[in-house]
Each structure stands twice: as structure tokens, then as C-alpha cells.
Amino acid sequence: MRVLILSDIHANRIALDAVLEAAGEVEATWCLGDVVGYGPQPNECVERLLAIDELICLQGNHDAATVGDLPLDSFNPDARTSLEWQQKTLDDEAIDFLKDRPRSTVQGNYTLVHASPRHPVLEYLLDAYTAAENFEYFDTEYCFVGHTHIPVIFKMTDSTKRVSLRSPEAGTAIELQPRQIINPGSVGQPRDRDPRAAFAILDTETNEYHYQRVEYDVKAVQRLMEAAKLPKRHIERLETGW
Ligand code: ZN
Q: 24, 39, 98, 140: which sits with the fewest CB atoms below 10 Å from its CB?
């Protein structure tokens, strides 16, 4: 099965459209959460996801906060301002969709969570040490995570239980090797100094993992954010991907 894996869309419909077009035909789409927060088009992103057949979409921390399932005081002031705007802007259909999302799921050989297997909504997996602690919290060979907006693959070697970290190279397909925790990066707000939208295509028969980046019209998104009076810092960061 050819699966599109994406995460952290963050109300950036223009980036989402670019990813869906670049991905081409897929048999399933796994979205690892944070559909809303930061960006200017939360309803439009939910609307687009609802049109996808065979979609699995998790609830991320921004989604949870927007629909009242997580307190806003766990966010920094700019993120909070943005979340309050999202709350005012979301329509009923989008609220129902975000409220109904699971926080984790298992699909065959793959566990899917937004943040980490140990804390599915809140923990940041940024280093090998924290990742190593998380390998005992899932039973499958692979776990896909989002949340940090940084594409990475953590691998545990069977014999030594050591965990190594690598940054995958965009545009190059690799074969996944058990056991791994894999982050496909962020569609709508990359933070690895590459402003292009990130996503991956997984072949579940061969375990071929093809991580990719695609350009989108950042300026158009920035104009929508300015019109919505969203925080300046969030508008600026899209340009350089930090
Ligand atoms: Zn996020």
C-alpha cells in the first residue's frame, strides 16, 4: 500500500495543497496531527482533509487546545494568541472533526502518534536520549511521530539498545529497518531551516520510505496571516523555516 504521511499542517492550506499534489495517487493518508494552530486557514485545511478517502488523522496539541481539550496556558504567549484566533475562526464542522480525532493508533507494523509514544500529545523527541526512553512505549517495529517539525529518524540497534539519530535526505528513498521512530517533518511550519513543505511516501509492502520537500507560495500565506493579524513572529518564520 502506498501511504502519504504528513504532519503539522498548522492551518496552512496552500502548503497542504502543494503536498497533496506532489504526493500524487496514494491508497491511504496518515496525518499525525496539528491540523490547526499558527496559520490563517484552519477551516480550509479541515475541509480539504475531509475530502480525502482512507484518511487517518490524529489530534495534536494545537488541535486539542483549540477545541478545549488542553489548557491554553501550556503554550507560549504568541502561540496562545494564535490559538485564540483559531478558536474564534473555526466553524462547527471543523470543531467536530478535531474533537473526534484519536491521539494514537496502530496500523499493522506502524504506531502513529503526534508527539511521542510515551506522551502522545506533548513530549518533544529532539534527541537520541529522549527517543531511547520511548522505544519501550510501543510494540510495533516502527513509530511515526510529528510535533517537533524536524524530519528525523531514530534507530535502535537490537544488540546494544543504543539509539542513533539521522536526518534523512530529501528526495532520496530509503528502506526502513526495525526498530525506528520516524518524523516526516512539517507541512505548514517547517523548523529545520528549509521553508519547503515536508512529507513522505511509505510503501508498506517493501518498507520503502521516501521523504520529500515541495515549494509553495509562502508569500501568499504570509499575506493571509497579516490580514488576520496573526503574530508577526509566526509570519516571519515561514520564510526561512525556523
Ligand atoms: Zn505542531
A: 24
